[in-house]
Amino acid sequence: MRFLLISTTVLLFAGSLFAQKTSYKKTKLTISLSGKVMPSEIIQDWMPHLQNLEMPKPGTEKANLHQLKREIEKLYPRKTLIKSGKINEQSPPSPILQRNFVANNPNGIPNDNSMAISNDGILISAVNSILYIYDVEQDSLLKKYSLSSFVSKAGLLNDFSISKFDPKLLYDPNEDKFILVFLYGNKWEISMAVACFTETNDPLGTWNCYALEGNPIQDSTWTDYPAIAITEDELFLTLNQLRNDESWRTGFVQSVIWQIDKSEGFKGDSSINTQLWTDILYNGKNIRNLNPIGGGSEPHGPSLYCLSNRNFDIANDSIFIVKVTDTINATSSELKVQVVTSDTKYGVPPFARQANDHEFDTNDSRVLGGFLENDQIQFVNNTLSPDNGFAAVYHGIVDNISTIPQLTSYIITDDSLDFGYPNISYTGKQDCDHESIITFNHSSPNDFAGFSAVYYGNNNVHSEVLKIIEGLSYVDRHSGDSGKVYERWGDYSGTQRKYNEPGKIWTSGYYANDQNENATWVAEIQSPDSTIMAISTIDTIDLSQNGLCHGNAVVNVKEGNPPYIYKWNDPASQTDSIALELCDGSYAVTVIDSYNCQLTGTAEIEHPQKEASIFPNPSSNFVTINFEIDQDQAIDINVYDERGRLVKTFSEASAKKGENLFSFNTEQLSRGLYIVKIQSSFPLKVVAQRFIKL
């Protein structure tokens, strides 16, 4: 079983060319504290949940999307491209599966999987309307509670007929605290987005909750499909505004961006400052399904990027880059839009197949996850693989995001499995890394629904697929008319870097249990790349040679990815791992590996100096002294008697670099012991020798 990768690289036009095509509105709003919730005090939780399991009828918008998928299957019939063998001999190893476990009992359709984990190993898994809190270090479930019990403590009406849905979780490594966002109500009259912040790193402690108006611009729309990310200072929440009683396609009005001061939320201030970005248009059309992009290794800022695409098209090549340039308090903040195009097109995926003539709904091809690191954004979404007709994963990489972005894109597909609902986390261990792990659902007529992962290495190649969990049966939860039964397979999966353990992620995704039901699987996954480049230098002297410029410096590289480039700062700018014929001094060497990781080390060269010698000794007339200096310079030569009194000065004598001889007539001296001192200035050095005058 193999998967295929299709890639391309295209340059983006400068953003200034598009400035005149972008319009938007921004409004500052103050949101009052709705209430404080302490999960440890939730004793009774009946977890009420009401959901209709009927499939959409013909003629509804959902059914129209289903019809589009059937047309796609005819246009792009499934076929096997790869039967065996490696598609790339440079493929890195697959990611390494570590701790993993089932995270919930099914309580709703689909699995709205989101998760966050702290540096201390406290993990929150959000599944539909229930939150599970685990201590993964102690392998224990600490608490589970419903969003219904949450809203009753947060000052909201706890009517079980009002939907509480689409939970999203984040862990802030700078604050060591959690953020939860979920939606309340699917009518504009009652709709709200609820943002909650922990006061400490204990999710069983106090959460400060703020209810954001679901119809903020008073246009009779309600909020749907949240996506969140953080910068150093703020929480960004994107939402789709929909009309009542219409589908998320025909009822769509616009996507909005909430910019929220997270420090005020963590403190539990009576009100928090926000900024709402609305009416975001490019060429007069709304940009929809904005996905905010957080930092890979840590929160970045103050600006934040959002990505969007043409998610309902069978084939499209456009990716929209939306940038909020600064914080709420920056009066000069603005919203900029750029567009990048790719020869590798994404598109609405076909249904994902499973056993017993059931299928999974794969929704559209909106951007589902991403991160920013080293001036590069990596992102993922569902897509059609046009080469084999399978539901697949689109992996995009935008380099030079702050200047003139350049897009490289891949389609990750398989010769038997359908893939869907991917997410992505950064796994780099050093500043130059751009590696990641992509997680996604998988299914086929012969493979029960499970959860998988792929590693993307610094060499720009994807690994083999790792099956995190294989399903135990086909899923059969929906009722419907005769013909195909479409099970819900999304709407998203969760993933997060373990911030204090570089190279490791935690993830939550979909699998089928042995009761024909959907369930959630949580896993810890390790990057297969254990390399962290390090260098050391060795300084040597070639004593077989005469003179002062025969030092050698050797740089040794540990780990990293060869071949290496060496850059010495010696006068000859040597480019090998060994620098030869070095004079005394300090020499820097920079080592760059094939992934553009670079480190700098220093070598110190100091030649052993020959001891000055004087002869003949004793002397009756002439005496000669042999000495070395580091460079051409004037020297001072003084003669002292045995009591330290200056007898004679030979000042500012001119000497050459290297070995020198100096002699003088001693007939003017009385019998006795004398000292000759030779002093140089660069560097300061004094050579002293005694002799006896006969």
SS field, number of helical segments? 3
Residue fraction in strands: over 45%
Instruction: Identify low-pLDDT runs.
Output: 1-19, 52-60, 83-87
What characteristic shape results from the CA principal axes? elongated
Number of domains: 3
Whole-number average pLDDT?
Answer: 87
Question: Which secondary-structure class do the elements indicate?
Answer: mainly beta
CATH classification class of the largest domain: Mainly Beta
Distance between the termini: 97 Å
Give the number of DSSP strands: 48
CATH architecture of the largest domain: 7 Propeller
Quick one: biggest sheet? 10 strands, antiparallel
Radius of gyration: 35 Å
CATH topology call of the largest domain: Methylamine Dehydrogenase, Chain H
Work out the helicity level.
under 10%
Write the CATH homologous superfamily of the largest domain: YVTN repeat-like/Quinoprotein amine dehydrogenase
Structure explained in plain terms:
The protein contains three helices and 48 strands. By secondary structure, the protein is mainly beta. It has three domains: 3-526, YVTN repeat-like/Quinoprotein amine dehydrogenase (Methylamine Dehydrogenase, Chain H, 7 Propeller), CATH 2.130.10.10; 534-605, Immunoglobulin-like; 613-693, Immunoglobulin-like, CATH 2.60.40.2550. The strands form ten sheets. Strands 2, 8, 9, 10, 11, 12, 13, 14, 15 and 16 form a ten-stranded antiparallel β-sheet that branches. The protein has a nine-stranded mixed β-sheet with strand order 1-26-25-24-23-17-18-19-20, with no helix packed on it. Strands 7-6-5-4-32 form a five-stranded mixed β-sheet. The longest helix has 15 residues, at 61-75.
